[in-house]
């Protein structure tokens, strides 16, 4: 099971497309959506909050600190926070597990499970970079939403699929979402 956290940064489509890819690959997913992400989903996409929940196998409430995924004894194959706000990134880097997303990240890191953070902010302040460095030193993969252009993308979906494909690569999940360098 891959846990997917979607926070309120611009770029929620990356999280949605990741859920679609996992579903297509028959990989079980658990989902947590922050309060602000619910607003961003409806403003940036044609999806509703309910549509996104249906893409996952299990949904956990953002405020439920008793959720099973918040325990190290609950086995998962990894966590992806996509997109990840700087507030969420800071909370995780500083061990502040105040909601389900930041708590499951704390558990994922302490259990040495694959933890992928997809920040979606530009430009970056020094503290953003320091928080990313802290998480990288803790074992997280920092995977900014930066599409490659060597595959000569024709559509926005091509660019989104590049980033989602790189997330799946980081989880060691085979995929053909983007043209690889030859």
Automatic annotation (TrEMBL):
Family matches, as SUPFAM superfamilies: Homo-oligomeric flavin-containing Cys decarboxylases, HFCD (SSF52507)
UniProt-listed InterPro entries: Flavin_trans-like, Flavoprotein, UbiX-like
Binding site for dimethylallyl phosphate: 150, 166
EC number(s) recorded for this UniProt protein: 2.5.1.129
Top enzyme class: transferase
List of residues binding FMN: 8-10, 34, 85-88, 120
Domain Flavoprotein residue range list: 2-171
Catalyses which reaction(s): dimethylallyl phosphate + FMNH2 = prenylated FMNH2 + phosphate
GO molecular function ontology, one term from the record: flavin prenyltransferase activity
Keyword Flavoprotein annotated: yes
Function: Flavin prenyltransferase that catalyzes the synthesis of the prenylated FMN cofactor (prenyl-FMN) for 4-hydroxy-3-polyprenylbenzoic acid decarboxylase UbiD. The prenyltransferase is metal-independent and links a dimethylallyl moiety from dimethylallyl monophosphate (DMAP) to the flavin N5 and C6 atoms of FMN.
Family assignment from sequence similarity: Belongs to the UbiX/PAD1 family.
NCBIfam families linked: PRK06029.1, ubiX_pad
Name of the protein described by the UniProt record: Flavin prenyltransferase UbiX
Source species of the chain: Methanobrevibacter gottschalkii DSM 11977
Lineage, top ranks: Archaea, Methanobacteriati, Methanobacteriota, Methanomada group, Methanobacteria
């Amino acid at each position: 099971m891959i846990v997917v956290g979607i926070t309120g940064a611009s770029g929620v489509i990356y999280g949605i497309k990741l859920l679609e890819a996992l579903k297509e690959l028959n990989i079980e997913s658990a989902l947590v959506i922050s309060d602000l992400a619910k607003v961003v989903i409806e403003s940036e996409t044609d999806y509703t909050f309910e549509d996104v929940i249906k893409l996952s196998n299990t949904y956990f409430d953002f405020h439920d600190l008793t959720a099973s995924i918040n325990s190290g004894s609950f086995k998962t194959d990894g966590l992806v926070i996509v997109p990840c706000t700087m507030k969420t990134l800071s909370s995780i880097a500083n061990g502040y597990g105040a909601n389900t997303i930041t708590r499951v990240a704390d558990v994922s890191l302490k259990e040495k499970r694959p933890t992928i953070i997809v920040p979606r902010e530009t430009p970056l302040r020094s503290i953003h970079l320091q928080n990313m460095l802290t998480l990288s030193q803790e074992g997280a993969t920092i995977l900014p939403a930066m599409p490659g252009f060597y595959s000569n993308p024709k559509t926005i979906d091509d660019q989104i699929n590049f980033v989602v494909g790189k997330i799946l690569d980081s989880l060691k999940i085979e995929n053909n979402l983007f043209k690889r360098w030859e």
